[in-house]
Amino acid sequence: MTVTIGPSSSPSPSTTEPGASRPKRSAASRDGTGPVRHSRRTKALVLGGVVFFTLYSLAPVWWLIVSATKNQSDLYTTNGLWFSDLHFTDNLKALFTYQDGIFLKWLWNTLYYGVVGTVGMTLVCVACGYGLAMYQFRGRGVLMGCIIGSFLVPHALLTIPSFLLFTDLRMVDTPSAIIVPSLFNAFSVYLAKVYAEGAIPPELLEAARIDGAGSTASSSRSAPA
Amino acid sequence: MAAVTESPSRAARLGWRRIMALKGASFTVPFFLGFLLFTVTPLVMALKESLYSEKGSGLGFGEKTVEFVGLDNFAEGFGDGRFWASMLRVGLFAVISIPVIQIASVGLALLLDAASQRVADRFRIPLLIPYMIPGIVATLIWIYLYSPVVGPLTPFFDLFGIDANFYGGELIWVSIGNLMAWSGIGFNMLIVYSALRSVDANVYDAARIDGASEWRIAWSIKVPLVRRSLVLTTVLSIIGTLQIFSDTMLFKSMAPETVTRDFTPIMAIYDWAFQQGNFNYASALSIILALVVGTASALFYRLTNKAPTS
Q1: Can you give the pTM of this predicted structure?
Q2: Which of A15, A61, B2, B308 is 20 to 30 Å apart from B179, CA to CA?
Q3: B23 interaction partners in chain A (CB closer than 8 Å)
Q4: pLDDT at A39
Q5: Which of A214, A59, A187 is nearest to B133 (CA)?
Q6: Which residues are in the ABC transmembrane type-1 domain (chain B) (predicted)?
Q7: Over 50: is that where the pLDDT of A200 sits?
Q8: Could you tell me whether strands B52-56 and B64-68 are parallel, antiparallel, or unpaired per DSSP bridges?
C-alpha cells in the first residue's frame, strides 16, 4: 500500500491537516495487508527529519571534539567546526599533569561515587518500585504520594538542613555524604514502579508463586524483564 | 530486607492476602527509611526554619536573636515583587518552551517510529547523546557556542546579516530554551518512542485497511495512545523548568547584566540563603515555590485527565 504525506515537512503532527488527500489513498490501501511500504517521498521526508534532529544533537558534540584538539590561539582564530593544527596530545598532557595529575583523582572519584552509588541505588529503588507496583497493601497510595510530592521540593531548600544533618551524623567531609543520600532516589523508584507495571505481567508472578518461588526469588528473576 | 517469617498457624490466620501485603510492604522499607532520613528530615527542618527569623537587637550591634515569627516570612514572600517577577519570567518561559519541546519530541518519536527498523536503530543512539551529557557540561558547551568571541554561531548568523547577541535581553531566553531543548528532546523522545513501540501493530493495520492516512494514524491513534507518557514528560518538564537554576547560574557568568541575581525563583532563593545569609526567608520562599510548582503540575494533570481521550 502506498502512503503519501502532505506538503508540510514539519515534524509536528499538530500543525498538519490529517487526511488532506484521503480518498486517493483509501482506494490504494485496500490491496495487501503486509508490512507498511511507504512511498519514496515519505521515506525521504522521514529520513530528512531524523537526520535533521541528529545533526542538531551531534553538532555541538562535534564542536567540543574539534575544540579539544586545538591550542588556545587556534580556538579563537580558526573555524570552530574543523580541525587546524592538532594539539590533542599536548592538551591531554596538560590535563593530566595539571596540579600533579589531580584530574586522575577526580576521575577516580567520579568512578567510585558513580559505581557505588548506582549499584546501591538500583538495589534499593528497584526493590521499592517492585513492591509498590506488584503488591496491594495499606499505605501504598500514601507512599506513592510521598514519592511524587518529593519531586516538587526545590533542592535549594534542602541544602542547608542536609548539611546540618550530615554534621550531626558525622558524615560531613566523607564520601558517604554524597553516596548514602544518593541511594534513596525518589525518581528512580518512580521509574522502577512504572517499568515493573508495564514489563512484568501479573500472571507471570502468579505462576511463579504457584510454583513456590519466594518473593525475593520472583523479584530477582523477573527483574531481567 | 526484612523477610516475613510467620509460623504456619499464624500465617493461616492472617491469610494469604495479608502476607502478600506484608511482603510487598517490606520491599519498600529500605527506601523509605532512607527517604525519611535524607528527604523528610531536612524538609521538616526547613519548614521549621521558615517560621523563625533572625533579628539583630539594638542598632544592629549586639547579639542576634532567633525569634518565632509565625507566618511573617510567608507574608513577606507573597508580597516580594522581585521574587514574583522571577516567577513570572520563568512561568512565561515554561508556557512557551515546554509545548515546543514536547511537540518536537513527539514529532521525532513519530518520525523514528515511521522510519524503517534499520534507520531507527542507527539513529536512536546519536539522538540520545545530548541526554548522556551531564547538564553542566551541556550548558558549558552551549555557552561557548553562543559566545561572540569563540562560538561559530555568531559568524554563522552574520552571513545572513543577522546580528545575534545570544546573551542580550531579547535572546537570552531563546538561548536557554534551545539549550533545554537540546538536552531534553532525546529523553522525551525515548519515553514516547518506547510507548509507541509497545502499541500492537495490528491497530495500525486495521486503521490502514479502513483507509486512514499516516498523518491521521499519527494524530488520532498514536498520539492518544502515548498520552500517558506525554503527561509524564510534560509534568517533569514543568517541574524542571520552574526550578531552573544551574543553567541560568552559568549564563550569569557570561551575561551578568542580563541574568540578574534573582533571574529565576531558585536563583533568588539561593541569593537570599547564601549571599544575604537569610536562611529563614529563603526557606519560606522555597516552600512558596514548591506550592506554585505543585499547583501548576496538579492543574496540568487535572486538565489533561479531564479531556476526552480521542
Answers
A1: 0.76
A2: A15
A3: 135, 215
A4: 76
A5: A59
A6: 87-300
A7: yes
A8: antiparallel
